[in-house]
Amino acid sequence: MKALVIGGTGPSGHYIVNGLLSRGYSVAMLHSGKHEVAEIPATVEHIHTDPFSEEALRAAIGTRTFDLTIAAYGRLRRIAEIMASRTGRFISIGGAPAYRGYMNPAVLQPEGMPIPSAEDAPVVPVEEEDGKGWRVAKTEQAVFEKHPRAAHFRYPFLYGPYQIAPREWCVVRRILDGRKSIIIPDGGLTLNHSAYVENAAHAVLLAVDRPEASAGQIYNCGDERMLTLRQTIDIIARTLNYEIEIVSMPREFAVPSRPMIAQPWTTHRVLDLTKIRTQLGYTDVVAPERGLAITAIWLKDHPLPANGSDEKILQDPFDYRAEDELIASWKMLCAKMPHVRFEREPGYTATYSGPGGKPRSSPFS
Fold it and tell me: Fewer CB atoms near the end CB (10 Å): N or C, the chain?
């Protein structure tokens, strides 16, 4: 059996390639050749070309045919068209921004994506609403027009080794730079679905194993358990044996946190994994806490070049002078906040607390 992986040097690529090898496939990787990954065995064929150029792609593939193509990189619409007569099966990888409200939550009422969002949730309908999301949705449509029995995966944010512009670097660099504080918005309670790279690859390989069940289907990818931004920072700091003060502010003030939440809002992005669990039997192969620890250590050992292209993509200026000024101003504002007395202190209670239950005004009452 012959498989073509378009991409393969990305964060989940070597897991996919090695997974195909373990299943008996002869694998060819088509990629630019700018990056090579040590985890790829020497037996894998490398086809070096520009995956974004239709002309170069056609020339590189020529008249070759494959039993399976996994398209994880490049111009997916053109790839789907080129491979229509050259492959038995087609598996493609796209992104969660296809969902309406993912990039622009204000278009929905109430504001924000449905929680969780299943595969049949509305996608971006018009370019004017969200240009990127609309293009992602149109690409999905183009894939199934050329490959009606394709399996398509909507990746969320990935984390792990080899990730380009990793959001976790926003935390790791501050730790490496000896920062004592980090700013988060709204308590850091935002849920932004992500997937450890090995988990994402595992999801794709399940479609390889179950061709009939996955034919013609779209699947959400993501870790089964989600961590908040605050939990993510805590795990990274603990992994690197570092203590850092977490300073929470309303999102309007917490400007330095934008690269970490990758959106100007703090609305949630939660994907429904019911379909991939029930149809393909998906479960995480790496727990998110373990995946974050691996990621933190990887970034510590493979730091991004300061002011390099990846940091520029993140759009984190690491402007510590401004951050210190903002933190000092916020703490001063909080200190000046007058103490407001209530005639009866607001509290909470367990509705079905049973005999002897009483209202509580604090967790320590």
Answer: C
